[in-house]
Amino acid sequence: MADAILEVRELSVEYLTRGEPAHAVEKVSFDLAPGEFLGIVGESGCGKSTLLFAIAQLLSPPAEISTGEVVFKGRNMVQMTDRQLRTVRWKDYSVVMQSAMNALNPVKSIAAQFADAMEAHGTRSKATITARSKEVLALVGIDPVHLESFPHQLSGGMRQRAMIAMALLFSPELVVMDEPTSALDVVAQRSLMVQIKELQRELGFAVIFVTHDMSLVSHFSDRLVVMYAGQIAELGPTDEVFDDPLHPYTIGLLEAFPSIYGPKVHLEGVPGSPPDLSALPSGCHFHPRCAKATPLCSSVEPALYTIGDRHVRCLLHQGDGTRGE
Ligand code: SF4
After folding, report:
1. Does residue 183 have a pLDDT over 80?
2. How far is CA 297 from CA 69, 263, 302, 319, in A?
3. Of 27, 98, 205, 275, which residue is 20 to 30 A from 50 by alpha carbon distance?
4. What gap in Å lies between CA 310 and CA 90, rounded to an integer?
5. Which of 228, 294, 298, 320 best tests ligand 1's pocket when mutated (most atoms within 8 Å of CB)?
């Protein structure tokens, strides 16, 4: 992608434990265009949150990037020092965590937490801090009067909105979000997703959105990455992945949630559970759970095959396109 804002190249992350290292992310590559909304989906333990933390340079031991690059606006963040990272984090890209109650400081008002973030990045003027804090809170639909509120005085939806407002304090070009709606009920989830999409369109920032719920991103993401066992199983435009999923794992995930249209059907889903990342199955890592597995699948590891603007890691598509890696 010529004008990519973010280029993730062959990124691998390992959890270094006393036994065998766990390969949480393995050779993941993708580009992100300015203003693009990329969804990353998969079950718990498939490596999607680790990937997001690796992109945001927020991994802590025992997790570490073993190989690869994360090139953001032309600079490889993997090689940056903490000091260099502090100059881009929050200003050029920001992060919204899963649970606002854990991410926000419970003993500080929203105003104090916004001020801390702005002062840490060089804004000293109290008037500027107050004006910008009111502005971003209004952007996410919260009355600026709540600047003086403490996190426990806000509803779950308002807390997540406050987190998003905080992430927008410096008008970053990229916001990475780790399941920001998972603690909310379905109505609040939908409303927050609509708001994130509206903000993204209005302000033009790109989004990487991690979720285990494929249906949640179906109407909001431009492209979708489906992860399994730390690898990209499938990547493509969201509507094409939903209309014509190529990877048996994607098909299983799509069959795991009900449609509101048509007759009631039995939900199949994907049998079994994700593999131990320190003892991955041979061949295709998905073969023990795959309904379409052939004898070859347990011995031959599929590459990521490119078919037009789509990518799929499955031997069934070996002859459909070019070998991607
Ligand atoms: Fe299933 Fe084989 Fe394709 Fe893996 S390579 S997803 S086991 S059919």
Report:
1. no
2. 30, 35, 8, 15
3. 205
4. 32
5. 294
